[in-house]
Amino acid sequence: MTVETSELTGDYVLDPAHTRIGFVARHAMVTKVRGAFHQFEGTAHLDGETPANSSGQIVIKTASIDTGVEQRDQHLRTNDFLDAPSFPDITFRTTKVEQKSDTDYRVTGDLTVKDTTKPVTIDFEYTGNAVDPYGNLRVGLEGTATISRKEFGVTWNAALEGGGVLVGDKVVLEFDISAIKQS
Fold first, then answer.
1. Averaged pLDDT score across all residues of the chain
2. Could you tell me which of 161, 171, 66, 165 has the C-alpha nearest to residue 113?
3. Are 76 and 68 in contact, with CB atoms under 8 Å apart?
């Protein structure tokens, strides 16, 4: 069962068991490395009638980074990259929500990585809503944004013998969100 847009208005929490916050970065200029963060919390207020009045925030635990290769993950947690001991959280807080179509939204907010805050715009697609077997109203959103890691103070790299660098500057952030409406 789905509900009408006007019934979506309310406060939501991200369901970590059904939400993925991931990324893709270029490696050695020839392939992509994919990863995700496994520990995070997020809340949102959705306004079904006036989406511009919606807002949200996500707090990601930096140390939960996982690319499937423990040695690489350990390096990503060091000061060369995310410096998880000094900066345990990556945060995103919305500053503007724009409805582009019935299912497309542009969400702008402040992304903070390593104590550097920059505005980032994420293009989201509303993928629908459903009442789960436990009576919870869920909404789904999928979004991506491309950032420059150097703009957030993540500058480590190594030159390749044939030219180029080991780690690309552009990082694609991926959000596959399942959020549960709160009573």
1. 93
2. 171
3. no
pLDDT tens-digit series, residues 77-99: 999 999 999 999 999 999 999 99
SS3 content of the chain, % helix, strand, coil (to 5): 10, 55, 35
Look-up of token digits 């950032």:
147
Q: What is the pTM of this model?
A: 0.92
The pair phi, psi for residue 70, each rounded to 5°, is -60, -40
Strand partners, 27: 31, 167
Say if residues 60 and 87 touch (Cβ distance below 8 Å): no
Among candidate residues 122, 128, 125, 127, the one with its CA nearest the CA of residue 58: 122
Nearest of 75, 73, 72, 77 to residue 88 by alpha carbon: 77
Provide φ and ψ at 6, rounded to 5°: -65, -25
Concatenate the DSSP letters of all residues of 21-42 into one string.
EEEEEEETTTEEEEEEE--EEE
Q: Distance between CA 20 and CA 35 in Å, rounded?
A: 10
* Domains delineated in the chain: 5-181 (2.40.128.110)
